[in-house]
């Protein structure tokens, strides 16, 4: 009887089995989904969102590349190779800017004769200027590289390079011109350093996730870093990233105080940076966001301030040079730093002044310095975390 009962139940169960199993399976699946969502939400909460902001050419992507090299897998051989065409294009663009620049300066400058390229090099200049205007650049052969080198050594080109503030001369010019032979080798593979110097304007948004102490160490903070395009037409895309930002790494190229914007040649780059920083500081989304200000391109700044007075820039017009050499560099740097500090406090509403605000002196090309700087950023953010959790 029992067996009948059990048998019956069994048969009952077995008849109903598909239904029961479906139910349990569904419940299990739902629970699993729920568990995963909770897990992912927890993990997401643990990921700190960092935004790299700043005007065009301030060094955001260079910092981004350094982070990739320092805390991630770095560049694969394929990635390195993909930079060959970028570097060759940079070389062609640079020599064009310089050659066209000589003509512009020869027309407008009172001391125009020093900007006139020698007769022998004029033909090369015209040819290279023509190549530089094309969309598709030819291969950088040894022969062309030699011509570029010849033109680069022309006294007029050197004069133009030396007074480049008015022209759009890339910061990597010297490095590119000194490495032409290597770049034009048929077996050329870009090095990490070449990649850091290469200039590609960012369009859109790129992101990487990393932990400064290594992904497999549990206690390490996890960061998701976003790199955006800094030129004016790119900035409308920024807004989509403004929710839930732990910290902004704002890059300001302090060497650009005598330069004009690429996208608007009536505007001084430092003035643009000032307005941009002010706008970001006032954004309502960033009430609790930490600000890490990178005063970047210090390597160029320290050379420039000894030749071009800081007060050529309207924002720095009250600057008084004090000394010479290294002392003057420090004096100028402290002055610029103070201007940014003042701006921060002016542009932050009283209820926001307790946001974390730190200023770092950086040269994005210097890997050791970027590593050290990021460690400090990480420490600051971790400390802030503990304070907010009431643990400190
Ligand atoms: N000498 C020097 N060059 C730098 C430094 N930081 C960046 N550069 C160079 O400046 C150029 C522009 O840097 P990017 O990192 O592309 O600038 P960006 O802010 O990403 O520019 P957008 O993508 O247009 O917003 C590159 O050729 C870099 O190698 C620096 O600290 N010193
Ligand atoms: Mg970029």
Protein model, in words:
With 392 residues, the protein is an alpha/beta fold. It has two domains: 48-76 and 202-385, Rossmann fold, CATH 3.40.50; 77-197, GI Alpha 1, domain 2-like. It is 52% helix and 10% strand. It is built from 13 helices and six strands. It has helices spanning 2-46, 60-71, 77-108, 119-133, 142-152, 155-162, 173-178, 180-183, 192-197, 269-282, 298-304, 325-347, 367-388; strands at residues 47-54, 205-210, 222-228, 247-253, 290-296, 357-361. A six-stranded mixed beta sheet has the order 2-3-1-4-5-6, with helices on both faces. Helix 4 crosses helix 5 (142-152). The protein is globular and about 85 Å long. The termini are far apart. The model is unreliable at 1-17 (pLDDT under 50). The structure holds guanosine-5'-triphosphate and magnesium ion. Residues 60-61, 202, 227 line the site of magnesium ion (MG).
């Amino acid at each position: 009887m029992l067996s009948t009962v059990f048998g019956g139940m069994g048969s009952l169960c077995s008849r109903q089995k598909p239904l029961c199993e479906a139910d349990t399976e569904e419940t299990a699946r739902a629970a699993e989904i729920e568990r995963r969502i909770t897990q992912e939400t927890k993990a997401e909460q643990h990921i700190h969102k960092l935004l790299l902001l700043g005007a065009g050419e301030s060094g955001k992507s260079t910092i981004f590349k350094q982070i990739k090299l320092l805390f991630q897998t770095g560049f694969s051989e394929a990635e390195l190779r993909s930079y060959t065409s970028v570097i060759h294009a940079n070389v062609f663009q640079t020599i064009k800017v310089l050659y066209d620049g000589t003509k512009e300066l020869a027309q407008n400058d009172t001391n125009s004769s020093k900007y006139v390229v020698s007769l022998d090099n004029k033909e090369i200049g015209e040819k290279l200027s023509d190549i530089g205007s094309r969309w598709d650049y030819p291969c950088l052969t040894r022969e062309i590289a030699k011509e570029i080198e010849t033109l680069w050594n022309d006294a007029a080109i050197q004069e133009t390079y030396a007074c480049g503030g008015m022209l759009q001369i890339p910061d990597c010019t010297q490095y590119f011109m000194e490495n032409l032979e290597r770049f034009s080798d048929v077996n050329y593979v870009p090095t990490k350093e070449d990649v850091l110097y290469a200039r590609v304007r960012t369009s859109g948004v790129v992101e990487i996730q990393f932990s400064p102490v290594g992904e497999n160490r549990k206690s390490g903070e996890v960061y998701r870093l976003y790199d955006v395009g800094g030129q004016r037409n790119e900035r409308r895309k920024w807004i989509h990233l403004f929710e839930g930002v732990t910290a902004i790494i704002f890059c300001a190229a302090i060497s650009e105080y005598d330069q004009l914007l690429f996208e608007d040649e009536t505007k001084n780059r430092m003035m643009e940076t000032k307005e941009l920083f002010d706008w970001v500081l006032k954004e309502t989304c960033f009430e609790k966001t930490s600000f890490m200000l990178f005063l970047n391109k210090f390597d160029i700044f320290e050379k420039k301030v000894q030749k071009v007075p800081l007060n050529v820039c309207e924002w720095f017009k009250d600057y008084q040079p004090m000394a010479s050499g290294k002392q003057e560099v420090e004096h100028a740097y402290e002055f610029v730093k103070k201007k940014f500090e003042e701006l921060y406090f002016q542009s932050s509403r009283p209820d926001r002044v307790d946001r974390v605000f730190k200023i770092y002196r950086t040269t994005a090309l210097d890997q050791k310095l970027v590593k050290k700087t990021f460690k400090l950023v990480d420490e600051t953010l971790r400390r802030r975390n503990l304070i907010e959790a009431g643990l400190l």
